[in-house]
Amino acid sequence: MKKLLTIALLCLTVLSLKAEVKYGLKAGVNFANATFKNAGLSTSPSSLTTFHVTGFADIPIDGMFSFQPGITYLGKGYKYDITINDSPEKGETSLSYLEVLLNGIAYFPTRSGRLFIGAGPYMGIGISGTLEQGNTEKDLKFGTGTDDDVSPIDLGLNFMLGYHLNGGLLFNGGYGFGFTNAIPKDKRADDIKINHKQFFLSLGYS
Hints:
Layout: H1 2-18, E1 22-37, E2 42-43, E3 48-60, E4 65-84, E5 87-109, E6 113-133, E7 136-139, E8 153-165, E9 169-178, E10 193-205
Antiparallel strand pairs: 1-3, 1-10, 2-4, 3-4, 4-5, 5-6, 6-7, 6-8, 8-9, 9-10
């Protein structure tokens, strides 16, 4: 991952020297959830509504394609209803991440602006989190040890579809999903996995 970020930064530097870079800001709503895989549990997760704020640079590669790195502050998490030994448990996990985005964008000109599609990897770093169960609330710890609650790094992919008006206003929707297991490394057992995922809607300006 460090090599990937180093290569991306070098590419960003070279491209920015040769192109007219535009900067933008967008924000919106996330419908966060997670995929649970655990042979011993019956799960019924539902989405948690959160938000995101993203700053990005748009670096043209040619007339159609751009490289669009960015940094996002966003919420992830899920609501759950789990049955353990015939005893139901309900709760809500709310997590905050800072993500580095490395998106490729393809633009399709129209009369009033440009339709665009994009995709790329992200690396999320956990900042804070809480677990609510009934009337109790617990702060969650990010780390890899047995005393931690959530893995500190989330790696995944984002996909988006949107429209950029000639005046600079833009809006898009998309989907992101994580590859890494959200359970801390030293607490993993058998095939237990939790992977983040989210739909998102954004409004911004560039």
